[in-house]
């Protein structure tokens, strides 16, 4: 398929891991693969930090009167959980770890378009992490990750500006990554790699990058306005000044809703890869999946008001948002149907990444369907600010996003490190994730529907909720174990795992054509793409053009793609 | 060394193009300052009244958009760029327009609320609906900053 | 394009390893820069949105309050910025032709014009607001004669938006001046970093034109509000 020369013995030739072993070569690297590893370590660390806060929350809620935290402290804990998990884990994780690593390999490029910008994005991310950690350590922010005014501008004491600065920087880190991805996908595809031969992971990365570019600056300026109002009194959100606090909510959610698509679109991309490669079959309806990615990127910008149904926004506007929110569920549903159709009559191999993919299908579907209750204004009025919402977004973001991240990590781990982890333990762990997750969040749906408010650390007015909270906390303990275990066996595999070949999964894609781990420059010579995407050898389809517009031509012109 | 006008295969534009653009920009700036000093009265046209200040605003914004287009097309070379660049240049402005969707909230608030609320004459909402006069009300108490 | 390719080979231009040739590198840089510009458009766009909202609600107050802004200084500033855009694009033009001295001259002219803009803003316009107690904060509106009949609430919003938007714009100008000055030094000293090809200058030019673009919209919105 391509002109690269594979080596099966990574030690005989320098790969990207061994090519330069000093700290300086790692901290000043331009190599997208090394930057991906740097991001992996930092995002994994912040995931643990956010998880620590989550365990405090679950511990606190086991008793109706609160167990160990005071109200103020609890506010700071759930804010820290939200800020760390969203800005420091969910938004960067798949794009900056898996995207950075795999995107150039998958399109046949030697590196991303702007390696130094890539490195800068990691440093900005680390500064953001330091600032947010610092803000938590010196006292914590109690406004919730949503920083609603006027609490955040006027009435709250605490290092809010510090936390906001951290979020601001994290946003810019993601913008730099997005700029890199867009320029790379437009301009640096290998010859023969047309848009419709791109793996769906690349489509997802592209869609995510567009959303990042168009949305993040709005939250950046909104949060900056909060900072300015805190410092100088010059502001536009205070009623005393004639301003409107609901304007903050509009501007904040204008980004934060597309932000959830930033968190889930990459996971969609990973799942496309996993399902195609572990059923050895083309993704059913490739074009539909690709276009639905773009549709979600676009429509996602028109639905922010569904976070504000009870905020005193005009109900006529609410009707419009409600309608469009129903519409935006359609492209996601199209993807789920297409993935399911891909699995049908496929050669399914239930290895770890595939188990994560199947967990994703089940969990994300539930999450998406519960979102419909929240999209409809009538039921949302009852369910908003309850644990139903908490359970819904954890289903999509954790059941969807984190599952996608873990699945992708397990899939590309042999490529990234050249080692295989023990598949048996990993598979059991994946099932444990599913069990722990379900045990944690299904009780939350129920207790939320029954009326348990979110962001409350006590519920003495409704002690009958306790059983649900205890079940949820037990599930959270299982989940904590299940999330921690991959760290152990993956790190173990670095030293004792069996060495991986270039293509241990028998998968299709340019990244599997290079050695594991790849050479610093990815490919020895520019690969030329001649077959369609997900074209597994030896597979015959009943319908010849199943999923693709045209048959592959026997020869392709080896000219550089224009864009 | 590089030959004039064909270095690196890039397109070099004559300075006169830039000069003409600058001249147009300055003339338009003068025009917009002059136009802002006109006072366009409200003009009744048949059954509707055209709001004079609205027209004035529209004129100022049109001139600003023309100036912006000149800068974008000629100074930023978008006119001679690839389709992708044109798309990107357009996208930013289209997306800002999407944000203006937010204004719809404020536009439709006065059509609220549902009739049931009118029943309670003691509520602030009732007072708000039944208030006559300016919208929003003129501020006639002294500035207080309770911080 | 074959002959242009052949010319490229002879010029000592550094093509990074991930690119095939200089054309791909240049086109990629332009795509990247425009992607960044889109973020800047959204960044300022949000503030324009807030402005539109509040002006719509407080139209008469905004008109009355804006009278304190001097159209003369605003007009001069606009002219300065338009001229600086012109000198910047001339800088790019001469960078394409590799005429180092003219590039440096134009870049310096751009810096000077921009500094003039900032001088006028920070010595003529903003201090006047501080003196007249028109800066939102404790002392706002304590000399009501400067409010010219506008309600304090509407006027305070107007000035909040004024300081926020022109302040953010001024920050972008300061950053721009620094970058252009550095670029001028790079050209003057013949550092290969950015002077062996015209693209870095073009990218800086794109940023600068954007800054000018924002002012083209800010000027009528704040200084030229019709009755």
Explain how this protein is built:
The complex is a heterotrimer of chains A (563), B (147) and C (227). By secondary structure, chain A is an all-alpha fold. Chain A has one domain (24-513): Cytochrome c oxidase-like, subunit I domain (Cytochrome C Oxidase, Chain A), CATH 1.20.210.10. Chain A has 16 helices and two strands. In chain B, helix 1 runs antiparallel to helix 2 (52-75). The relative contact order of chain B is 0.06. Chain B has a two-stranded antiparallel ribbon. In chain C, helix 2 packs antiparallel against helix 6 (152-188), helix 5 packs antiparallel against helix 6 (152-188) and helix 6 packs antiparallel against helix 8 (199-223). The longest helix of chain C is centred in the C-terminal third of the chain and has 37 residues, at 152-188. The chains are: A mainly alpha (563), B mainly alpha (147), C mainly alpha (227). The interface between B and C is large, with 61 and 70 residues.
Return residue spans of chain C where pLDDT drops below 50 for at least 5 consecutive residues. 1-11
CATH architecture of chain C: Up-down Bundle
- Fourth-level CATH superfamily of chain A: Cytochrome c oxidase-like, subunit I domain
Based on secondary structure, the structural category of chain A is mainly alpha
Query: From the alpha-carbon coordinates, what is the Rg of chain C to the nearest angstrom?
Result: 21 Å
The average pLDDT value of chain A, as a whole number, equals 89
What is the β-strand count of chain C? Answer: 0
Q: What is the 3D shape of chain A?
A: globular
Oligomer: heterotrimer
Tally of helical segments of chain A: 16
């Amino acid at each position: 398929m391509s002109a690269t020369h594979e080596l099966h013995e990574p030690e005989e030739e320098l790969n990207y891991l061994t090519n330069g072993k000093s700290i300086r070569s790692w901290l000043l690297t331009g190599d997208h693969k090394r930057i991906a590893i740097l991001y992996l370590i930092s995002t994994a660390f912040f995931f643990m930090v956010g998880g620590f806060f989550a365990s405090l929350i679950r511990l606190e809620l086991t008793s109706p009167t609160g167990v160990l935290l005071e109200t103020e402290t609890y506010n700071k804990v759930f804010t820290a959980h939200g800020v760390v998990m969203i800005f420091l884990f969910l938004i960067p994780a798949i794009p900056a770890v898996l995207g950075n690593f795999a995107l150039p390999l998958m399109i046949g490029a030697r590196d991303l378009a702007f390696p130094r910008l890539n490195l800068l994005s990691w440093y900005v991310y680390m500064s953001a992490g330091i600032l947010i950690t610092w803000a938590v350590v010196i006292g914590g922010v109690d406004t919730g990750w949503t920083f609603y005014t006027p609490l955040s501008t006027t009435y709250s004491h605490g290092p809010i500006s510090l936390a906001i600065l951290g979020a601001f920087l994290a946003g810019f880190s993601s913008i730099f990554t997005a700029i890199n991805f867009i320029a790379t996908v437009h301009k640096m595809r290998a010859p023969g790699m047309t848009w419709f031969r791109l793996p769906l992971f690349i489509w997802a990365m592209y869609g995510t990058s567009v959303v990042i570019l168009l949305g993040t600056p709005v939250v950046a300026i909104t949060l900056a306005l909060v900072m300015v109002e805190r410092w100088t009194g010059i502001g536009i959100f205070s009623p005393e000044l004639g301003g409107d606090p609901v304007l903050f909510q509009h501007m904040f959610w204008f980004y934060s809703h597309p932000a959830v698509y930033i968190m889930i679109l990459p996971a969609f991309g990973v799942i496309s890869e996993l399902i195609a490669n572990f059923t050895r079959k083309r993704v059913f309806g490739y074009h539909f999946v690709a276009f639905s990615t773009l549709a979600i990127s676009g429509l996602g910008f028109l639905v922010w008001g569904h976070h504000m149904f009870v905020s005193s926004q005009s109900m006529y506007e609410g009707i419009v948002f409600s309608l469009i929110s129903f519409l935006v569920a359609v492209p996601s549903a199209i993807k789920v149907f297409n993935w399911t159709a891909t699995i049908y009559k496929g050669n399914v191999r239930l290895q770890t990444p595939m188990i994560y993919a199947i967990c994703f299908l089940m969990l994300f579907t539930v999450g998406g369907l519960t979102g419909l209750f929240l999209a409809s204004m009538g039921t949302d009025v009852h369910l908003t600010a309850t644990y139903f919402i908490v359970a819904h977004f954890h289903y999509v973001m954790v059941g969807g996003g984190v599952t996608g991240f873990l699945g992708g990590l397990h899939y590309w781990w042999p490529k990234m490190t050249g080692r295989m982890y023990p598949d048996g333990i990993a598979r059991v762990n994946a099932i444990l994730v599913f069990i722990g997750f379900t045990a944690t969040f299904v009780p939350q749906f129920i207790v939320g529907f029954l009326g348990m408010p979110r962001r409350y650390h006590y519920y003495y007015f409704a002690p009958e909720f306790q059983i649900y909270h205890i079940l949820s906390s037990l599930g959270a303990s299982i989940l904590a174990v299940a999330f921690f275990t991959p760290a152990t066996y993956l790190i173990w595999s670095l030293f004792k795992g069996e060495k991986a070949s270039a293509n241990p999964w028998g998968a299709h894609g340019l990244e599997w054509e290079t050695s594991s781990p790849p050479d610093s420059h990815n490919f020895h010579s520019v690969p030329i793409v001649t077959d369609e995407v997900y074209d597994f050898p030896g597979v015959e389809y009943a319908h010849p053009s199943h999923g693709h517009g045209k048959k592959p031509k026997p020869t392709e012109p080896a000219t550089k793609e224009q864009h | 060394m590089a030959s004039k006008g064909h270095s690196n295969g890039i397109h070099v534009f004559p300075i006169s193009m830039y000069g003409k653009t600058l001249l147009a920009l300055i003339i338009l700036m003068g025009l917009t300052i002059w136009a802002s000093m006109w006072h366009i009265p409200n003009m009744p046209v048949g059954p509707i009244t055209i709001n004079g200040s609205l027209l004035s605003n529209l004129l100022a914004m049109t001139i600003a958009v023309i100036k912006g287009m000149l800068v974008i097309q000629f100074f930023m070379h978008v006119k001679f760029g690839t389709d992708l660049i044109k798309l990107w240049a357009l996208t930013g402005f289209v997306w800002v327009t999407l944000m203006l969707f937010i204004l719809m909230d404020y536009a439709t608030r006065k059509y609220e609320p549902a009739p049931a609320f009118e029943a309670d004459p003691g509520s602030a909402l009732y007072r708000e609906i039944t208030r006559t006069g300016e919208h929003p009300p003129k501020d006639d108490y002294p500035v207080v900053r309770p911080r | 394009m074959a002959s242009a390719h052949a010319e490229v080979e002879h010029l000592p231009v550094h093509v990074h390893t991930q690119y095939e040739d200089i054309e791909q590198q240049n086109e990629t840089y332009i795509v990247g820069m425009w992607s960044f510009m889109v973020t800047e458009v959204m960044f300022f766009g949000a503030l324009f949105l807030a402005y539109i909202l509040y002006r719509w609600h407080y139209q008469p107050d905004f008109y009355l309050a804006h009278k304190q802004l001097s159209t003369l200084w605003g007009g001069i500033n606009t002219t300065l910025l338009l001229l600086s855009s012109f000198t910047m694009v001339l800088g790019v033009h001469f960078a394409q032709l590799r005429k180092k001295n003219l590039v440096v001259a134009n870049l310096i002219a751009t810096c000077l014009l921009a500094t003039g803009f900032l001088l006028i803003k920070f010595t003529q316009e903003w201090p006047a607001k501080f003196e007249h107690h028109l800066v939102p904060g404790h002392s706002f509106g304590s000399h009501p004669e400067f409010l010219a009949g506008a309600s304090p609430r509407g006027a305070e919003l107007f000035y909040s938006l004024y300081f926020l938007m022109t302040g953010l714009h001024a920050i972008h100008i300061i950053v721009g001046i620094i970058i252009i000055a550095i670029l001028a030094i790079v050209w003057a000293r013949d550092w290969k970093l950015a002077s062996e090809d015209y693209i870095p200058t073009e990218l800086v030019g794109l940023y600068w034109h954007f800054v000018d673009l924002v002012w083209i919209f800010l000027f009528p919105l704040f200084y030229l509000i019709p009755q």
